[in-house]
Specification:
The protein is of the alpha/beta class. The chain folds into two domains: 284 residues, Zn peptidases (Aminopeptidase, 3-Layer(aba) Sandwich), CATH 3.40.630.10; 133 residues, Alpha-Beta Plaits, CATH 3.30.70.360. Helices cover 33% and strands 22% of the residues. Strand 4 and strand 5 form a beta hairpin. The longest helix has 21 residues.
Length: 423
Amino acid sequence: MLDAIGRAIDSRRDELVALTRDLVRMPTINPPGEGYRECCELIARRLQPRGFEATFVRAEGAPGDSDRNPRWNVVARREGRGAGACVHFNGHIDVVETGAGWSVDPFAAEVVDGKVFGRGACDMKGGIAAAIIAIEAFIDLFPEHDGAIEVSGTADEESGGYGGVAHLAEKGILAKPRVDHVIIPEPLNKDRICLGHRGAWWAEIETKGRIAHGSMPFLGDSAIRHMGAVLSAFEAELYPALAGRRTDMPVVPDGARHSTMNVNSVHGGLAEGHSGFPAACVADSCRIVIDRRFLIEEDLAAVKDEVRGLLDRLAAARPQFRYELRDLWDVLPTMTERNAPVVRSVASAVETVLGRAPDYVVSPGTYDQKHIDRIGRIQDCIAYGPGILDLAHQPDEYVVIDDMVDSAKIMCLATHHLLFGSM
């Protein structure tokens, strides 16, 4: 069987490259969310000849959705000959801005030295193409399978996934009991299985002051100085505490196995005038946005209380210190068990195709598994796909063709195991 799958995927190598290039050439940049419908239609046209029924779902009312930039998703489903599990491959179709520093056209999808270059080639249109080729080969080899196979192309992962996977999960489309096993072909390297991700809490802290003339700051109260005390307390108390916490989750890179916090932005004082000349005023407000990444061993309420407790201590010790703490967003950590069916199936396929056991990792940041777990209630979910994670969002992003071929073989073999129960 492995030889048959290998030959089937190898014979489709040129198709795999062509499909990847077609996807990359669609500049589905988010924000604002361009070209989603066209990309969804390409995926549907590709799968329909093999018996997939495609459904287009617009996430009306989701963040970013508008008539100018509608949040379109496609879900293509093929029913087998009888009852059985549903294996779902989910890939996000949106890509980030190109940025500067490219030596090639970001949307020309050039092939150089065995690589397809372009924005989204690695993250994650190469993975979508590999999954589609894997499923096409599987259906041609095993047309009489039981159960169902689904492929989805979804919007907005790069901006939280609320117009994509979250919407499908809320509608019961990408959710239990309709779907049993989910593989997200994110670029994690072809020999690694990503079991989940750390938790995240974003919040805004605002310190309050009183405006006065800058030449007489003693008549006012500087919110920026109060924020300086907050940042100093972070350095003295919070950061050392976070550095001392380490998870048993196999998070990569190693530095992310600790709790972390980043100050994403600082805003304070009045804006400069039209001439760029600064306002001669004491700042009556200063805001920061914090990005706290926490471990599966930590409780979200305790994470929030830790920051609030620090602020309360400052309020007690520092005259006129006033603050507001506002939640912006939070996501709980998630990690699929190593003995889950999809993990065992992909791990066995990796070892069979590559001749070595996979590494098991957890992502330092979140991706759409958060919605599949939290809203869709599907715990049998992993990220596995071709591509080098470090290349995502970089200039001259690329995906190695050999990696896509190997990953397609692994996904095809894993699908057989999940639907037939054997390799």
